[in-house]
Structures are given as structure tokens and as C-alpha cells.
Backbone:
């Protein structure tokens, strides 16, 4: 009997095909049972206030509308269409827009095909989890820097009680921001195994992987010679939305070509406790039209003698960055015992608080965007690494990347008035190690949020 | 909570959000003044006490005659340096480059187009006189070398493949002495033009005629591209020794060590630098051929107009890519040759000023090195090892970025450069200053000057051209509210006691010396405000101690009258 109940839960969830940025049902709906058509409309609003204190470079304390969004959906038989649009910060932004066909067979296996603009499977568990249900004001920094966001693509998902295999083909997540080239292509997948699944608890472990061939970049023209330079940026905020500046942690990698992403994740919850975590790793390979650039560099009296010497002076190196986080929460109080941590089986994520409750949460995050060669000298006055160990007028290019390493710890208290409204309070301490900011080591932030979802 | 209450909470949140967001706009301003006080600046006296000793070789409030003067006379020539010396400058400033035959020049521009008549003399081609120059070379005793035509042709052909127009490294010094380094000044500065700045002969025509007779190059009879040796001579109270036609006396010949060799052999052998500087070895220098000797024994004579001032020299290593890789070693040897290398010949106990005259040129501070180049910083450190005062010059041009710019001219960036430069044997920071006519970037704001002072390094801003700049950095800086900033009074406010020539006063002084094109203006201001000719100047590098420059000249000559006196008539 228990098995049948669980299967029913999964079936309902799969067919509902909840959108990734919302795992709550909208308040407003219109259903024509005769025609088997259902329309919904809903929204979300998040207002944040934050106070920052750090050692040297000021961050902007203040407040912001972190998110304001309208969502719509329509479903007909096995088809589901969803779209939501953001207005946070006074700027319109398209979020998700997709069409999904999902069908469950008689043994509880669900097959779903989804096409449109949405988070790719390997974007990270944190990215796939709706921010409104996240239990923290911001996602873990490592997920923001090393995870990926929405992209245009098509995917196939197999899901049942114990397994999920979700894979697809996507474009880059640039979405029309590319100046030149094409949108690239990503093959991504996420595979989950759930050794423990019952009404009160779930344990899932999983892997995700993606291979991206970057296609877009900027055209650089020198002496009539044009090359496409593909840059890849990895960056994160200090786990906040009020000051979204990514100056403290990030890097842009010129001549990026392919991105290989690997991740591992685990999630456990019962009614009163949850713990989850991810490890994320990215490898970025490089490529360029060396000969064309070499020829274009022959523009002064001391031009390079040959392409080999130019290449020696301007080496390319593959970059590897990683990070991860562990998050946990405990339900301190729940009115009438109604609230409990629940699992979103379709998305393979934890749901938000579903009733009036008070929880305490904690997180430790590590993000490492430093890849510094031994013996390099770094000049903060020039934000430049010198491979010879000292400053030179025209040094060989260093392959060092000093994007920064941060270790952060967050504790939070969340009070949900009901399943629609929540008040959140987080304190985060971050310790930064970045050559560019030698005087910025300790960051403290206190953040509050009021959010409504309907 | 019912829906009504939810709406109330939401509305209040929006109002709070708007209010707090408006506050955050204020915080976009990064307060460099505040940051400058917070950053950890490396202090020279603590990190490198031996460098602090060398720092004290430099007189306080030194007046550095930038290229002699760019305003009154053709820069970096006999005229501008004689004038600066007699005016009472503490240092004659110049830039160092190298000729094809290894002569160290005092020359600013990386090419010769602006300050000489090279285009009308040589065009943009390899000098047409080059082969004849080789054909007429002699040994030291005057006997012709008589190199074979095949040898000369081979060398010439090699030069054709490695020739870049107008860069001094492509010309022999004797060839450069055919050029007129003063005519351009008269054409560009009508008000300051003086006939004596120009040559009266046609050196090219005379040289061609000389070649016909089997003789060598005939020099111009005006102002020349200077050698470092010339600059040192002017600082020592000398002037050029000229023949009856006004040409400088500087015979040249092939070094005797090459006797018996063909021209090809000499050309190849001389490319290898053999100088050793205290054990440092330098590699192959293919473009430079040190096979010609210039006989400086009769190059100078006592200047009858010598004021008795003995300024030092303040010499800059230029673009590293345009100079020999052993340029610093060459300069080390050149200074040694003229007795101006304090690494090998100290001048302990000499005062900066004596008997109303400048005497810096007889002290351990007689030479100050300077550069924008990181390469030169490294090489100067390897050669001079911090034993000669060294200035690192700051420039920024954000967002465009030259290879040696202080790209991030922020307290963090300045602190970083200060530390690096101290660790590489620098004692002085030379920031650019704003203001007409050059309109350089401002790199000597109070917070920047404060950081340099805090570091224990000397601050020599460049370059002063106007009274407005002088007053701004020597006590009358006003902020955007028209007030003297007071944030940095703890280190920058100097109380200057009265002298016989000034009432003294109390000012924030954002420099410890200055590069100037208007030596007369700087000296006058500093005497009038007690910064010179004062026996009890507070010493900013040694709390509680004083600096005595009371013996500096207290009268500043009239600039025009001095030029007339030196023989440059209007």
C-alpha cells in the first residue's frame, strides 16, 4: 500500500510539471474540466534589506526588490505550457518559458520531453531549486558562480520513485547577449538515485555533468584581421541581492572554448530536518586563431620574430575551478504540527515551508576561483600577474587566474506565516582570499527578506 | 495573519526598501582619503634601513631642472643645462638613451624628429654618409683603417635589415653631432627664440666635402644632442670646447683593441658587451657596436660664466625595449669614468649647500636615477643595489593602459607600488601632477602624497610649469569646497620658521622636491616661503630633527638676463 501511495505522489508531481522557479501552486486558476484545459496565473515578490560591514572596500548596504515576477501556465492533457517574467530592479526579464509533454505509464515511470528556455539539468541542484523555496535568502555562492542558469534547449527526463535521469541539449545560457558567433551548444544531464523514499523522508544522491562548446564572443579587428574572441565569465556576489556587484569574486577567461562541468550532490530530509550539499567543478579549455593574432601583432618596430616565440609569450592554459556547499535546516516550531520538509520529486529538490513555522538554517560554502602559478608575482597596482616573479615592461602573459577564494558561513532564521508569505533573516560571514583585494578579508552581512508567493 | 495584514507588511516593506535604497546611493563614493589612512604602507626605514640611509643623500625640497628647462631653452642641451646650473637648480634632469656605437645620450624623445633636423639631414633612410663614414675611419694615431669595400658593404647590408628611422640606436654618435638640436626650439617658441640656439653651418654639406678629402664627419656648430658626459661636465661648471668655427672638439677613432681585424670582424666582435659590473654579466647585444672611441680629453673647458653652483644630475632610464639590455650597466660604467659613481667613490661629509652655492654635485646625492620602466627598476637594482638614490615615476592613463602604468591609482594600488619599489631599491616616488600646459593625470592628491610620506619615501612630483601648480602643491591646495584639506595634517602639515628672506608659516606641503621647467619660479617661491635658505626646516623623515639649507643661494637670477650672460642673445 505504502508503495502505491508513493507512486501516486510521484505521478501527481510529474504530471503537474511544476516550474523550476516555483514549487507552489498558483492561487488563481481557471479550469474547464470538460475540455481538460487549465489556466493559472500567479506571482512572486521578494524585498530584501541588507547591512554589510567589511574591512576595506565598501559594499552598498540598502534594500532592493530582489524579485518581482508574474507566472502563467496552461495545461491540456499531457501538455503543459509555462512562462514567467521578472520585474525585479525595475527591469523586465524573461525567466522561464517552455512547453512540456509528460506521460506516466502504468508502473509509475514518467517520461517527459521539455522544450523552451529553462534551467539545464546540470545547472546545479541549487539553481534548479526555486529561490522562493530555498530556505536561504541567496543560493550558495559556489552554485551561483559554478552553476549555470537558464538556456534554450530540449530535454528528456525519466523519473520514478527511485531514479531520475534528466538530460538534454541546450544552447549557451547567454540568451541573445552574444555580439558575434553563435549560441554554442551544451549537452547536460543530471542523474539521481533515491535509496530512501517514503512519506516522511527522502535521501537522494546524484551526479550531474555538462559539456559546453562556446560559440559566442566578440569580434576583435586589428590591422584588418578579425578574430572571434570567446570569453567565459565566472563570478558570484557575496551571497546577497542588495549589492549584486561581483567585483570580489570572479574572473573572465579569454579565448575559452569548451566548458566541462561535473558535480555531485546529496539531499536528505525528514519532517523536521534537512541537509543537502553539492560539489561543483568546472574545467575551461581554450582555443584561438594564433596565427591571425600573431600577424596582427606585428605592428611595431620590435614585433615578434615568429609565431612560436609569440605563442611562448602568450600561452593558453586550461583552467579548473571548484566549490561546494553544505546546507542544513531544522524546524523549530510549526503551528499544529502542520509544517514539514517535503521533497519535490519531479525536480529532485527540497520544497519550501508549507505552513506557519519557524526554522533555523545554516550553510558553509567554499568557492575557489584562484588558479595561481607558483612563482608568479602579482601587482595590485596593475591587477596583473608576472610569470618571471618580478614586474617587467612587456612580460610574457601569465596563465594565473586570481578570481578569488571565499569561505562563507551563514546562519538564518525563517518564519513562514503560511505557505504564501515568509520572513527571513540571514547572517553571513565570508573570508576572502583574493590578490586584487589584499585589504578585504572579512565580510559580515545581515540580510532580511519579506517574500510573497501566490 | 489574514490577507489584509499581509498587504500591510508588503506595503511597509516597499517603503522601507525605497528609503534604504536611496541611502545606498551615497555609499557608491569610495573614500580614498579614508582608505589611504587604512592601508598598510610599507615603511622604508623599517623594511630597508640601508635604503633609508641612501634616501638621506637627497636634499629636502630639491629643485630639479626638468631637461634643464623646456621653457627657456632647447631641452637637454648645453644651453638649458648651463642656464639651470647658474640659476641655482639642485639637479640637472635628463633621459638616457644609447647610440649605435654605445654612447650614452641625454635625450628625451625615443626618436629624433622633434628636437633635431634629422629629417632634412638624413631623411628616413639609413644615412647616405654611412659608407663614407666607414671608409674614413682611422685609428687613434690618425692612420686610416682602410677597411675593404666588401667588408663595408657587408656591414651596410646588415644594417639595412635592422634599421628603424630616427631611433638614436641606429646612428653613430658622430652622425648625431651633425644635427642641429636648437633650431626646432626657435621655430616652435617664437617668444623664447634666440639666434645662438641654432647652428650656422650646414654640417651635411661640409661632411660630404670632408669625405671627398678622405676626412671624417664635420659637426654642426650649434646645440647638440648631448652625451651623458656633457651633462656631467655642465654640472661641474664646464661648457663645450669648440673650435674656431664653433664646432665641438671631439675626435673619434676605432678602438686600438681592434687593430689587425677586418671591419666585419670588428663589427661582430664589438657587438658582444664585455663590461662587467661587480660580477654582473651581460649577454650579446647585436644592435650595439662599441668599436668607436670618442676622445673627450679636450671636449670641455671651464665655463667663464660659471656661477659656482654644483648641481647633481637626475637621470632617467627610458623605454627598455629601445635601449641595450645592459643600459644600466653602461651608465654605471659611464658614471664611474667621470667620477660620479658613489658606489665606487663616496663623497661623505659634503654639505648640500656651501657659501651661498649649490653643492649637491659634490655629495653622495650627486646622482639620482629614475625610470618609469619596470625592467629598468629590476636592472638598476641588480647593478646599483640601492646604493644610489632611485626614483620610480608614476603614470596612469586609465582605462587605456600602458605596460608600466599604475593602472589602479587607488590607495591599494599606490601601496602595492610603494612596497614593490622599496623592495627593488627605490627611495623616491615621482607622481605626475595635473595642470596646464601638459594636463597630466593628477597623481599627487593629498591622499597620495600622504601615503608616500607615510612610507618614508621622498616625493618628487613632475613637472611644474606654472605658479598655480607651485602654490597648489606647496601649501595652498584647496579641495572642491575651496578649503585646505586637513585630513592629513598629522604628516603633511609643516611649520616653517622665519628666515631672513621669509616670514615662515604653516602649510601642508605635498612634495619633498619637484621637477620643474621653471626653475626660477620654484626657487623664488621656496625662498619666499622659507623652504630654502632656512637653517631649521623640520625634517619630515626624521621627527624632531631639522634640515639646514641656509647656505643655498638666496638670490634667483633673472631668467632672461642669465641667458644673455651665457651668450644666448635675443
Residues:
Amino acid at each position: 500500500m505504502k508503495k502505491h501511495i508513493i507512486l501516486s505522489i510521484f505521478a501527481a508531481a510529474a504530471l503537474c510539471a511544476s516550474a523550476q522557479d516555483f514549487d507552489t501552486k498558483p492561487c488563481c486558476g481557471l479550469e474547464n474540466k470538460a475540455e481538460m484545459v487549465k489556466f493559472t496565473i500567479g506571482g512572486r515578490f521578494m524585498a530584501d534589506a541588507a547591512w554589510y560591514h567589511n574591512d576595506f572596500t565598501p559594499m552598498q548596504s540598502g534594500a532592493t526588490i530582489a524579485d518581482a515576477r508574474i507566472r502563467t501556465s496552461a495545461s491540456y492533457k499531457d501538455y503543459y505550457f509555462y512562462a514567467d517574467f521578472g520585474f525585479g530592479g525595475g527591469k523586465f526579464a524573461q525567466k522561464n518559458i517552455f512547453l512540456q509533454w509528460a506521460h506516466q505509464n502504468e508502473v509509475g515511470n514518467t517520461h517527459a520531453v521539455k522544450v523552451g528556455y529553462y534551467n539545464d539539468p546540470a545547472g546545479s541542484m541549487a539553481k534548479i531549486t526555486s529561490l522562493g523555496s530555498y530556505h536561504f535568502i541567496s543560493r550558495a555562492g559556489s552554485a551561483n558562480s559554478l552553476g549555470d542558469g537558464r538556456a534554450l534547449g530540449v530535454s528528456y527526463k525519466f523519473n520514478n520513485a527511485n531514479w531520475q535521469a534528466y538530460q538534454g541539449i541546450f544552447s549557451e545560457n547567454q540568451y541573445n547577449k552574444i555580439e558575434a558567433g553563435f549560441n554554442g551548444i551544451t549537452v547536460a544531464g543530471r542523474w539521481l538515485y533515491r535509496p530512501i523514499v517514503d512519506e516522511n523522508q527522502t535521501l537522494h544522491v546524484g551526479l550531474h555533468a555538462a559539456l559546453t562548446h562556446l560559440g559566442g564572443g566578440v569580434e576583435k579587428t586589428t590591422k584588418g584581421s578579425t578574430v572571434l574572441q570567446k570569453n567565459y565569465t565566472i563570478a558570484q556576489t557575496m551571497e546577497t541581492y542588495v549589492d549584486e556587484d561581483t567585483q570580489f569574486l570572479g574572473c573572465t577567461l579569454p579565448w575559452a572554448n569548451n566548458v566541462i562541468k561535473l558535480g555531485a550532490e546529496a539531499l536528505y530530509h525528514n519532517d523536521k530536518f534537512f541537509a543537502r550539499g553539492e560539489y561543483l567543478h568546472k574545467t575551461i579549455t581554450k582555443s584561438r586563431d594564433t596565427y591571425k593574432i600573431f600577424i596582427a601583432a606585428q605592428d611595431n618596430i620590435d614585433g615578434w620574430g615568429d609565431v612560436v616565440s609569440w605563442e611562448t609569450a602568450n600561452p593558453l592554459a586550461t583552467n579548473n575551478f571548484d566549490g561546494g556547499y553544505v546546507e542544513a535546516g531544522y524546524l523549530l516550531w510549526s503551528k499544529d504540527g502542520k509544517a514539514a520538509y517535503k521533497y519535490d520529486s519531479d525536480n529532485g529538490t527540497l520544497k519550501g515551508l508549507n505552513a506557519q513555522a519557524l526554522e533555523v538554517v545554516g550553510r558553509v560554502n567554499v568557492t575557489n576561483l584562484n588558479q595561481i602559478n607558483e612563482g608568479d608575482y602579482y601587482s595590485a597596482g596593475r591587477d596583473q600577474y608576472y610569470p618571471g616573479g618580478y614586474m617587467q615592461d612587456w612580460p610574457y602573459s601569465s596563465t594565473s587566474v586570481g578570481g578569488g577564494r571565499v569561505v562563507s558561513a551563514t546562519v538564518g532564521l525563517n518564519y513562514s506565516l503560511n505557505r504564501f508569505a515568509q520572513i527571513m533573516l540571514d547572517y553571513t560571514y565570508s573570508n576572502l582570499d583574493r590578490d586584487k583585494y589584499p585589504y578585504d578579508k572579512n565580510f559580515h552581512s545581515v540580510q532580511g527578506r519579506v517574500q510573497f508567493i501566490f | 495573519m489574514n490577507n489584509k495584514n499581509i498587504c500591510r507588511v508588503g506595503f511597509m516593506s516597499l517603503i522601507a526598501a525605497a528609503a534604504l535604497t536611496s541611502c545606498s546611493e551615497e555609499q557608491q563614493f569610495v573614500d580614498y582619503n579614508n582608505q589611504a589612512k587604512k592601508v598598510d604602507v610599507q615603511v622604508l626605514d623599517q623594511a630597508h634601513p640601508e635604503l633609508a640611509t641612501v634616501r638621506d643623500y637627497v636634499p629636502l625640497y630639491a629643485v630639479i631642472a626638468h631637461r634643464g628647462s623646456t621653457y627657456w631653452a632647447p631641452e637637454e642641451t648645453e644651453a638649458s643645462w648651463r642656464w639651470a646650473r647658474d640659476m641655482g637648480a639642485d639637479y640637472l634632469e635628463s633621459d638616457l638613451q644609447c647610440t649605435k656605437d654605445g654612447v650614452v645620450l641625454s635625450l628625451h624623445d625615443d626618436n629624433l624628429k622633434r628636437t633635431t633636423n634629422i629629417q632634412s639631414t638624413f631623411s628616413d633612410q639609413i644615412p647616405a654618409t654611412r659608407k663614407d663614414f666607414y671608409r674614413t675611419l682611422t685609428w687613434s694615431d690618425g692612420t686610416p683603417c682602410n677597411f675593404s669595400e666588401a667588408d663595408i658593404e657587408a656591414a651596410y647590408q646588415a644594417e639595412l635589415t635592422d634599421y628603424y628611422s630616427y631611433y638614436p640606436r641606429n646612428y653613430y654618435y658622430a652622425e648625431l653631432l651633425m644635427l642641429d638640436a636648437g633650431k626646432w626650439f626657435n621655430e616652435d617658441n617664437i617668444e623664447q627664440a634666440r639666434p645662438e640656439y641654432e647652428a650656422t653651418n650646414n654640417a651635411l654639406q661640409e661632411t660630404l666635402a670632408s669625405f671627398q678629402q678622405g676626412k671624417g664627419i664635420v659637426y654642426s656648430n650649434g646645440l647638440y644632442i648631448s652625451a651623458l658626459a656633457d651633462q656631467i661636465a655642465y654640472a661641474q661648471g664646464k661648457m663645450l670646447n669648440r673650435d674656431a668655427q664653433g664646432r665641438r672638439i671631439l675626435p673619434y677613432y676605432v678602438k686600438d683593441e681592434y687593430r689587425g681585424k677586418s671591419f666585419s670582424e670588428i663589427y661582430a666582435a664589438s657587438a658582444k658587451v664585455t663590461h662587467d659590473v661587480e660580477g654582473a654579466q651581460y649577454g650579446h647585444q647585436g644592435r650595439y657596436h662599441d668599436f668607436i672611441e670618442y676622445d673627450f680629453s679636450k671636449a670641455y673647458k671651464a665655463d667663464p660664466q660659471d656661477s659656482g653652483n654644483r648641481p647633481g644630475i637626475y637621470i632617467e632610464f627610458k623605454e627598455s625595449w629601445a635601449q641595450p639590455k645592459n643600459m644600466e650597466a653602461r651608465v654605471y660604467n659611464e658614471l664611474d669614468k667621470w667620477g660620479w659613481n658613489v658606489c665606487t667613490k663616496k663623497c661623505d661629509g659634503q654639505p648640500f649647500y656651501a657659501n651661498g652655492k649649490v653643492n649637491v654635485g659634490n655629495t653622495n646625492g650627486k646622482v639620482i636615477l629614475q625610470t618609469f620602466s619596470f625592467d629598468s627598476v629590476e636592472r638598476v637594482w641588480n647593478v646599483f643595489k640601492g646604493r644610489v638614490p632611485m626614483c620610480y615615476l608614476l603614470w596612469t592613463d586609465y582605462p587605456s593602459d600602458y605596460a608600466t602604468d599604475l593602472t589602479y591609482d587607488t590607495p591599494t594600488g599606490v601601496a602595492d607600488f610603494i612596497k614593490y619599489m622599496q623592495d627593488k631599491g627605490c627611495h623616491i616616488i615621482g607622481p605626475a601632477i595635473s595642470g596646464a600646459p601638459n594636463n597630466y593625470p593628477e597623481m599627487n592628491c593629498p591622499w597620495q602624497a600622504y601615503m608616500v610620506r607615510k612610507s618614508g619615501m621622498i616625493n618628487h612630483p613632475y613637472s611644474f610649469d606654472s605658479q598655480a601648480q607651485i602654490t597648489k602643491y606647496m601649501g595652498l591646495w584647496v579641495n572642491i569646497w575651496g578649503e585646505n584639506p586637513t585630513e592629513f595634517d598629522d604628516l603633511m602639515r609643516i611649520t616653517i620658521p622665519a628666515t631672513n628672506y621669509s616670514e615662515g608659516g604653516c602649510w601642508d606641503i605635498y612634495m619633498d622636491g619637484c621637477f620643474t621647467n621653471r626653475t626660477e619660479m620654484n626657487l623664488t617661491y621656496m625662498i619666499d616661503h622659507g623652504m630654502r635658505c632656512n637653517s631649521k626646516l623640520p625634517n619630515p623623515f626624521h621627527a624632531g630633527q631639522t634640515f639646514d639649507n641656509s647656505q643655498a643661494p638666496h638670490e634667483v637670477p633673472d631668467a632672461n638676463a642669465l641667458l644673455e650672460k651665457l651668450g644666448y642673445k635675443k
